[in-house]
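Chapter review: from sequence to fold.
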Amino acid sequence: MAGMSVGGLVSGLDTNSIVAQLTALEQMKVTRESQKKENAQKTLDKFKDLQTRLGNLASKASALETQNKFNVFKASSNFDDYVTVSGKEGATAGQYEVTVRQLATSQKVASNTIPTINEPVAPSAFGGNDTITITLSRTQASAKTTGKDFVDVMISKNDTLKDIVNKINAAEGAGVKASIMAMADGDNRLILTSVETGTKGFTISESGGTSLLQTLGILKSDEGSVALSGNALVTKKGGATKDTTFDELNTSPLLKEIKATDQIGINIGGGWITASLATNIGDAIDELNTKLSSDPSTSNLEVTLNNSGEIIISRVDGSNIGSETASGFQVKIAEFDNSDQIIDEKRDLGKFETRNTFANVITEAQNAFYSIDGMAISSRSNSDDKTINGTVFTLKKITVETDETTGKDRTIVGPVKTSLSLDRDSITSNINAFVEEFNALMKFLDENMKTTVKEDTDKVTGKKTTSREIGPFAGDSSISALRDNLKRMMTGTIDEITGTKNNGYSTLNSSASRIGITTQRDGTLKVDNEQLNKALDSDFEGVRRLFTSNSFSDTVGFSVGNFNKKSQAGIYEIDVDGTVTLNGTPVAVKDIFDDKIITLENGISIETPGLGQKAKVTFVRGIASQMANFVEKAKDTVDGYYKSSEKTYQARIDSIQKRVDELQVRVDNYNARITKQFAALERNMGNLQAQTANMMSALSGISYRR
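The token string follows.
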């Protein structure tokens, strides 16, 4: 039968057994290599397990790493379909009664009629150029992130209405979105809608052609722009109108009281021009315009009031007021002396900014007006996060409306009662979960880094034997460094907040042990929840800084805006010229935008009120922030802890497998060779026996004949 052999029939030797034993001796070499592969695979599996556990730790840390995430508040509203409240960075507990009189709306404008959407819109507007650059204002969030106020969109001569819409909408960070409205056959309109609500709206300009925006009917033919005050004149019923008298202007306890002797003043660079507030806002504006028109240097300027109570300064002939000119305008309510110099300032209407004058306005943007505990507030957004630090009021519906006929209020719902309270239980739960995950990771590392001696008893001889079991991570310096770094971050002191007094605030909570997270005898950490709760009650800000990424400054107006995983903690000193040092060492400055945002090469951006003064800004990475950032870098770096090890062990496994395959081939060849040799031995011995028999037979025949 093919493949079957019976050994030793001639020789009497058990050749099959001999071949098997000899082959088994060679096979042991393969077995030893296979065991090495198995051990390497176990180690690789442990590294993958480590990767998962590090990810779990980072996930728990992420719930505590930023001030927004750390601030867990319970929010309530008795009419949550009208007003809600929420907490973010810097929030504090509080109760508020809110009345909403007007919601903020977005600016929406239209073009003139465009006959078709699939043909070039206005080639004649390009003149001798093939392209025109449209410049759009950015959203506040995009401007803060990028450090740039505008984004450019290149329009080509052959672009259709569809092309223009797609290009505007593809402009990342733009403060405007585009759409097409088909009014009728042959009557298509380009619709531009502000992304953000409020009177800030959006701005648009062009360069490189003749006048595409005028040709399309987006801007008026005179390309007019006006200057708009940053703050509004507010009454308890909303924005001021021309009929508003000075005593109706909001006089909350937080603002200086306006008196009948106070005046409104406008400064356009040549000194203050004032008007009396004795009657109403409209009369005061008329008086200002009379004085402006009487002076040849200002006769082309006019003051008006928009529907949100903001002052508008425009040119009588409709021409542009440039941004540089607008930034120099000032409007204040104050007590002036006889020389029109301010004695006591009562209201500053903020920095003036330019706004386009659009040809076809569909919706005029307006600000939201609401009151908090009777104090009138104007907000350009329906989510106001500026009035009370860290507290966000989201306005959904008006609660009071004014009858235009009678002028009387009609209450839709009573003052919305909202509250924000610290959810201490959720915070302590997040901290406990973080510590538990840390303990689990430390236990996992310790178990896999140690080498143990195992005792066993031979069942036949009864003798005791010992063997060493080496942990997969034993002797791995990278794992040892990983463990030490994690332990240091968890139990060390945050130097940037140790004994530091900043913004009038001082904390002693600069390490986990100070808030009840202590090391036990077995090396694990334990949370004393009673001590932790006491720390949260007595020094919430200190506990928050201990865990999160945060910053503080010794100078008002300076703060850290953005940062990334490369950003280093420490004290950043800003000089008058914008140069920066970190803990005394110069730091590379990437960009300075508008003298107000300093971007560093390490990802830190420092927001300033303007260059010209020195300041110190401290950037802190708390425990959770350090952990999350450390794990992220370990994951993403090619030479990271487990990525490099995973690569090393996988290469080792592949190499061992190659060696196993080679050895197995040798063993198989060896088995075939000695099997063949023993088979040849049997044949030779068989032949020899046959020859011997023949010879003996021949000899026996010779003897018989004699």
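Two observations follow directly from the output. Residues 106-219 form one domain. The longest helix spans residues 641-705.
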